[in-house]
Design brief:
Strand content: 25-35%
Number of strands: 33
Distance between the termini: 35 Å
Radius of gyration: 28 Å
Helix content: 10-25%
Number of helices: 5
Strand order of the largest sheet: 30-31-32-3-33
Amino acid sequence: MAPHTRGSRSFPKVLIERDSDTEESSSEDDGYGGEVQNAAVEESEEEEDVVAEEEEKDEPSTSTKNRRKPITISLKKLCKVCKKPGHEAGFRGATYIDCPMKPCFLCKMPGHTTVNCPHRVATEYGVSPAPLKSAHSSVDYVFERQLRPRVSAIKPAFVIPNEVNCAVIRYHSRRVTCLEFHPTSNNILISGDKKGQLGVWDYVKVHERTVYSNIHGCILNNMKFNPMNDGTVYGASSDGTVSTTDLETGISSTLLNLNPDGWQGPSTWRMLYGLEMNTEKRTLIAADNFGLLYTLDMRSNNVTGKPILVHKKGSKVTGLHCHPLQPDLLLSCGNDHFARIWDMRMLEAGSSIYNLAHKRVVNSAYFSPHSGSKILTTSQDNRIRIWDSIFGNMDSPSREIVHSHDFNRHLTPFKAEWDPKDVSESLVVVGRYISENYNGVALHPIDFIDISTGQLVAEVMDPNITTISPVNKLHPRDDVLASGSSRSIFIWRPEEKFELKRERDESRLILCGKAEKERKGKKSEYDSGDDFDDGASKKKPFSKSKSKSNGGSKRKC
């Protein structure tokens, strides 16, 4: 199939080969070649039958019985989803067309497609706003007296970081998997990637960045700063290890290794995903892909106790989170379609306080950041679920918001996260999987949602970022958003509202590796990786700034 291109005057022309089309065409070529080869074999067999018939005239001919029917090759176009003729599914320009024979990809309901899904028009469709409750029971009374004062009665105006302030293009060698802001230094961001590398970036000085490549052997799934020493960070990886790393020197040590004998096959290989810490007891908690929970003493860096089964045996524990006010309350989620609340003082298999059922895999589950009275979960069924009070009825969520984060490719799972600065505990941020057509370009926005009403507060995007941004982290003190898109990291700040808007400062956009050569005029794709969008016809680097500044030149990583 001919590659799709998209031209622009201010950017060099880049030619992008669509991966999906390439794979499909190669498979079709393989199938076509196989049919031709089979036909050639059949012709040779028929010739042998004819020769045998001439040599043995006395024997009755059986060649007609052994002959096979000729193979016909159909060039009729079929739907890529249901394999039926009469319609097509996939990208048409920058718009994705659903298969009409399947349910809506967004809300999973039949009768309509994603293009005209009511939840796509308005995220608050079918969502009941949070009611104003008064204290009627003793539990509600305790909540109103002790926890309600921590929640602002007046909802403040939301401040949305909606403009790219600086970026590092192709910072990591593989896709970004996790992000964390430094607890005391406002301008330090650490990141992990699929290869197990750990990156440290000062996004104010822009060019001060370091990548440590000898920390883990594969995916770095989660990171937590040491509360007693903010110069060290803990990491949980799919290589089955928990490590502690000095951010200045890059020297790391292994605290827990679940695969001491190395690779013995997929049935025994253990991977760590969830990582959390209990600051009161100074313990580090990690969970693996077999449903087991491990506890480590942060003072001695040793494992304490035996592993405890917290989710279905053989299922992956995808996330852990401790209550901000009562760290003994632990919230876990996993592949067994459940989020569970535990009391760590009486932690044993089957002793969960609540079991919150979901229809598909639960990617994340978090207590609200200030009062801890709310629960926010993200599930693969394109639902964001909210429980308004952990003291109330937990049998069903207070609200379900339909949002696009179900994916069918190799991506970092989407996770809706709270804004830690929002005292009303109602603003969350999450990346979007389904692309939108913006002036002929397929873009994947980052959504800010008010979970009290289900309304979409803002969707932020940049026309030069055509990859998917599944990893997003809001700064705990500043109005800053960090997003990981493919191998690149972007820093967003609120747009400056001036009459004469200043031009983009190119010195704050760093191109690493091959991207710097491509920026000088070579024809290649702007960014590649697992998050590449098949619908984006062609990617382009950020536009040149017209300012003639001598300082802040790009440096090669």
